[in-house]
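User: I'll paste a sequence; please echo it back and then give the predicted structure.

Assistant: Echoing your sequence first, then the prediction.
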Amino acid sequence: MIAKAMIDEGAPAVGDGGLSGRRAALGALLGGAMLAGLAAKARADVSSSVDTVPLQFALHLQYLVTNYLQFVIYGDNRQLPAQYIRAGEIYGDAGVIAANLQQVKFPNQADRVLQNCIQEIADEHWYQTLTIRGMLRGDSVAQSEIDYRPSAFTAMLQLAGAIGPDEQFSPYASPTNCLIGAEMLLSVQASAYASILADMTNPIAMAMMSSMAATLASSVTSVRSMLYDLSAQTPAILTMLDKLAAWRDAIDGTAITDRGLSPAMQADGQIATRLTVTDANGLYLTRTPQQVLNVLFMTSSAATAGGFFPKGISGGIVRSAAN
């Protein structure tokens, strides 16, 4: 059964007294009666269905975000190991082990509150990665080379005008920077899952992606909430995230796909926060996979590599959109 395999495999249990509330809810959904009745058929069908390509794309995003979150919280050797990044299940091509990550220090009590929140999101991502691999099985794609150096994050923020052309940014330098780095990756991933969900046809894939999309939306809101609280002491955080969101919204085409963090005037004249990344109808803003690659490759052109993926990705979706 998929849910049991997901919980039994892997080991983000360091410092974790048990499944967190949101992860327990994810496990409960995936382990429900519907899955028990359909899991065997779904595992046979997903590999040959139209869901394979978007799930492969989602797996690349899982690799990107999971390695980052695991390492900043747990440190050495907590990136995804070889058996969870290879193509297929056992005999596929080896994936590229994530490198150039650093653990972040959370020195005081206030920082440790942030650490606990990021740890929960990190652990959720670990199990989500195994769940998607369990769905794809032999069609799992290998992890591509991912650039986690501070220079990759710096490049995106410089392109967005969020920092100056001579400024540098390291997501590993402080808890605040760690959260900014998490927002840079999570917000794009969440917009992708909200889009991918509409294309799912397999009932198990639909249930899985529905839960993951909801969990990701919650995670992004949590990270933005923490950054908003920190902005009371450091207002520059709002300016940085506003410029970053505006750049992401522009580089991936004309549709509205992002929003900043600064409070905004509403139609009734009231000032409201913008912690959630939703439209006027309360629906989560989405990006197509091609638009996601515009952001992650850091280009508005059609490209097959760049930014966080210097050698591109594999699967059926590998090119960004021409905007």
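The chain has ten helices and two strands. Residues 57 and 317 are 7 Å apart (CA to CA).
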